[in-house]
Design a protein that fits this description.
With about 270 residues, this protein is α/β, with parallel strands linked by helices. Helices cover about 45% and strands about 15% of the residues. The protein has an eight-stranded parallel β-sheet. A two-stranded antiparallel sheet has the order 1-2. α2 runs parallel beside α3 and α6 packs across α8. The longest helix is centred in the first third of the chain and has 18 residues.
Length: about 270
């Protein structure tokens, strides 16, 4: 898969590092008070092993408060411009809004990471098609009603893919995210990972985003700042099932973990 002129092959698991420039994200909100702080962290992320930096300007934690397009743009665009000017790195924008996506792509972003999988803003698909960039389609919906969870959510994800293709987005631009932590309870989130191979069989590269999430906290009864080991367990599931990308906060630890596991399983 080629993104931003870089090859993300299917022989290994690549790290998408999380860079939230928000005051209220569940794990790292308010960590970076200036552009210099952001650039310092971006430099660290690259050195630690991030292949993609995912820039988010609006928190999507449970109960989050939506902000205006203008405010979100003012947060992400200067960061994306600075990162792409300073570093040779693939950049993703974490947004579900077409105006924000357009501004981010103009600023140099290579991927749109949409937590609503093109279901929120009916203009977003056109923006992605226009700029011919990659998109992460995440499974999400407004409720957690399922008759048979695994088959239902996979069917819903397939429908999102069909809609993306009908909108004119190229098949080779699509990445799928099963949406751990969105429209799912703890048991269902665990089932996503247990049956991740069924999700992979949909036929697109997969991104798994579990870092520090409540499924880990609820399972281990741990606060958000003590969920590294649980996150690494989910990264193991990703590597052992040939998941193409993992989206994480703790890059250094995940990168070392992946390198060792790949050395064992892909020797």
């Amino acid at each position: 898969m080629i993104i931003g002129g870089r090859c993300f092959d299917d022989k290994r698991t690549h790290i998408m590092g999380i860079l939230n420039v928000t005051p209220d994200s569940f794990s790292d909100g308010g960590s970076y008070s200036s552009l210099d702080d952001v650039l310092k962290r971006a430099d660290e992320m690259i050195k630690e092993g991030a292949a993609i930096i995912d820039v988010g300007g609006e928190s999507t934690r449970p109960g989050y408060k939506q902000i205006s397009d203008e405010e979100e743009i003012s947060r992400v665009v200067p960061v994306i411009e600075a990162i792409t000017d300073r570093f040779d790195i693939t950049v993703s924008v974490d947004t579900y809004k077409s105006q924000v996506a357009r501004a981010a792509l103009e600023a140099g972003a290579h991927i749109v990471n949409d937590i609503w999988g093109l279901q929120y803003d009916n203009k977003l698909a056109d923006v992605i098609k226009e700029y011919d960039v990659s998109v992460v389609l995440m499974h999400n919906k407004n409720n957690s009603d399922y008759s048979d969870f695994v088959s239902d959510y996979i069917h819903e994800m397939k429908e999102q893919c069909k809609n993306a293709l009908k909108s004119g987005i190229s098949r080779d631009k699509i990445i799928l995210d099963p949406g751990v932590g969105f429209a799912k309870n703890t048991e269902q989130n665990l089932m996503v990972m247990k049956y991740i191979d069924d999700f992979i069989k949909i036929g697109y590269p997969v991104l798994l985003g579990t870092s520090r999430k409540s499924v880990i906290g609820n399972t281990l009864n741990l606060p958000v700042n003590e969920r590294l080991e649980g996150t690494l367990a989910t990264t193991a599931v990703a590597v052992m099932n040939d998941v193409r990308f993992v989206r994480v906060h703790d890059i250094k630890e995940n990168a070392r973990f992946i390198k060792m596991l790949e050395a064992i399983y892909r020797v």
